[in-house]
Amino acid sequence: MKIKYDNNGLVPAIIQDATTKNVLMLGYMNEEAYKKTIETKKVTFFSRSKQRLWTKGEESGNFLNLVGLKNDCDNDSLLIQVNPAGPTCHKGTGNCWGEDNTPNYGFFSTLEAIIAERVANKDTAKSYVASLFSKGINKVAQKVGEEAVETVIEAMDNNDELFLYESADLLFHYLMLLQAKGFTLKDIEAELKGRHK
């Protein structure tokens, strides 16, 4: 792989979780750190403050296990995908921006957070979610069943707009049912991954 190192013999290395796709940290590699990373399968940097090679996790045990590595279009930065063995940041967080390294399913994750917040606030007068949750899990489950039937009916029709509308209702209520049972999309993902062969 061709790498353009800067005038100090370094190249920026962006570290990304191979599973969650979250950016975990930024480090710098010289040629020796790059070679050691390839050889050991543990991400190694050149520490600018210590002026030596530094394998992430050498003291904490929170190694960054190499999954893949690629160069950008100009060959002057690396994207390194890893399986982290514990928190990435020395402050104990999942990444160096103080965030947890949790899966993100785009707007579905946002929707999960909104549902959780509305359930916690219990404002049944202003929130449909809180109102439905206040009626108990049987009502939430019943609503999922109703939306599933409506989705199936629309699937057999030729109105794509109504099919998508009912599909969105089904998914929304299913996210509510997951939370009512104490689960999230992450749990469903784990179950599906376990079935994948």
TrEMBL record:
It catalyses: 1-(5-phospho-beta-D-ribosyl)-5'-AMP + H2O = 1-(5-phospho-beta-D-ribosyl)-5-[(5-phospho-beta-D-ribosylamino)methylideneamino]imidazole-4-carboxamide; 1-(5-phospho-beta-D-ribosyl)-ATP + H2O = 1-(5-phospho-beta-D-ribosyl)-5'-AMP + diphosphate + H(+). Its EC number is 3.5.4.19, 3.6.1.31. Residues 25-97 form the Phosphoribosyl-AMP cyclohydrolase domain. The keyword Nucleotide-binding applies. It is found in: Cytoplasm. Residues 108-197 are annotated as: Phosphoribosyl-ATP pyrophosphohydrolase. InterPro entries: His_synth_HisIE (IPR023019), HisE (IPR008179), PRib-ATP_PPHydrolase-like (IPR021130), PRib_AMP_CycHydrolase_dom (IPR002496), PRib_AMP_CycHydrolase_sf (IPR038019). Its main location: cytoplasm. It comes from the Bacteria. Signal peptide: none annotated. GO terms for biological process: L-histidine biosynthetic process. GO terms for molecular function: ATP binding; phosphoribosyl-AMP cyclohydrolase activity; phosphoribosyl-ATP diphosphatase activity. Keywords: Amino-acid biosynthesis, ATP-binding, Cytoplasm, Histidine biosynthesis, Hydrolase, Multifunctional enzyme, Nucleotide-binding. Pathway: Amino-acid biosynthesis; L-histidine biosynthesis; L-histidine from 5-phospho-alpha-D-ribose 1-diphosphate: step 2/9; Amino-acid biosynthesis; L-histidine biosynthesis; L-histidine from 5-phospho-alpha-D-ribose 1-diphosphate: step 3/9. Residues 1-107 are annotated as: Phosphoribosyl-AMP cyclohydrolase. The keyword Ribonucleoprotein does not apply. Gene3D superfamilies: MazG-like (1.10.287.1080), Phosphoribosyl-AMP cyclohydrolase (3.10.20.810). GO terms for cellular component: cytoplasm. In the N-terminal section; belongs to the PRA-CH family. In the C-terminal section; belongs to the PRA-PH family. This is Histidine biosynthesis bifunctional protein HisIE. It comes from Neotamlana sargassicola. The lineage of its organism: Bacteria, Pseudomonadati, Bacteroidota, Flavobacteriia, Flavobacteriales.
